[in-house]
Amino acid sequence: MKTRKLGNLEVSAIGLGCMGMSHGFGPAADRKEMIALIRRAVELGVTMFDTAECYGPYFNEELVGEALAPFRGEVKIATKFGIQVIDGKQLQDSRPEVIRQSVEGSLKRLKVEAIDLYYQHRGDPDVPAEEVAGAVKELVDAGKVLHWGLSEPGIGSIRRAHAVLPLSAVESEYSMWWRKPETELLPVLEELDIGLVPFSPLGKGFLTGTIKAGATFGKDDFRSIVPRFAPEMLAANQKLVALLDELATAKGCTPAQLALAWLLAQKPWIVPIPGTRKLARLEENLASAELELSTGELSRINAALEEVEVVGDRYPEALEKRTGI
Question: How many CB atoms lie within 10 A of CB 47?
Fold first, then answer.
């Protein structure tokens, strides 16, 4: 697979988001099947795998660690600190002493001596960005972290953290149906030579065209509380699905492949991390890395997207407040 750089960290052009294998989208999938899927991704050229301490908590890191144990030195693992799960509730906590505890747990679960890319999962309003960067710098100096990043930070936090310890990547939701990062985030990342890792690049499955207007989600599926997945919003946003299907048909690819190729075409330092539990979807997604969109095609796609209004918030209000986007 083609590679790209996040700062000076070189990874495959498309990574694999592993959260949904065991967290956030209903009951966890079969562990042996997910290990096989992750290992197949390596065989297909993926070198970027994304997890987090709070996915589970903990057992998604354990899954990734076991799956990638035979490939040490061949792949890069990104994980995250800064969200503690206490009595089933997520709390933002990036105090330096908590970061030091978190990294030891992640190293053990991932079965590695150093974390390739360590993100602050969400900003902590009680801990300045400079203090977080300083704590991570100590981990870098100790050889426990190789690169670091921020997930859905504010622009000010990016600048302050980067001044203390240069960031390799920022992780943010970004896709055809959530394009807010284009306004401020992308220009700042380009200025500072920081890569972007879009999560939910397929709109939590919506842009694949497989989620119809009448779809419902169980209580253990995160989408059940996302306003954009409410019945009336799903119905209204089918216009985007229809457009994507039309554009993909014209290009001779699937809607998912077009959505990923569109992201890759935005900047050479963008590395999307679509997640899946299915081998066929994995192969479909990874084929996007070879799909080229000309300047003219991009212009036509963007013009068509401008004609479609996407409705519904991407997060419940309380979760949106955690971000700096």
Answer: 21
Rounded to whole angstroms, the Cα distance separating 217 from 169 reads 32
Q: Which long-range contacts (CB under 8 A, 24 or more apart) does 211-214 make?
A: 212/238, 213/238
For 17, residues 6+ apart whose C-beta sits below 8 A from its C-beta are 50, 199, 273, 274, 275
Collect contacts of 183-188 with beta carbons under 8 A, ≥24 apart.
184/155, 185/155, 185/325, 186/266, 186/267, 188/155, 188/158, 188/159
In terms of DSSP H, where are the helices of 89-237? 96-110, 129-141, 155-164, 185-192, 231-236
| Tokens encoding 209 | 């065209």
- 8 A C-beta contact, residue 167 and residue 161: yes
Cα separation, 320 vs 280, in Å, equals 32
Handedness of CA 216, 36, 15, 1 (dihedral sign): negative
Say if residues 280 and 195 touch (Cβ distance below 8 Å). no
Digit-coded pLDDT (tens) for 53-105: 999 999 999 999 999 999 999 999 999 999 999 988 999 999 999 999 999 99
pTM over 0.90: yes
Which residues make Cβ contacts (< 8 Å) with residue 190, sequence separation at least 6? Answer: 267, 269
Residue 28: DSSP 8-state? P
Q: Are 54 and 85 in contact (CB under 8 A)?
A: yes
Query: What stretch of H or E contains 67?
Result: helix 59-68
Helix or strand (DSSP H, E) at 120: strand 117-120
55 in active site = yes
Share of the chain above pLDDT 90, in %: 98
299 backbone dihedrals φ, ψ, rounded to 5°? -60, -45
> pLDDT per residue over 199-213, tens digit each?
999 999 999 999 999
3-class secondary-structure state, position 269: coil
CA distances from 178 to 14, 175, 259 (A): 19, 5, 12
Cα separations (Å) of 180 from 55, 158, 225, 293?
25, 16, 21, 22
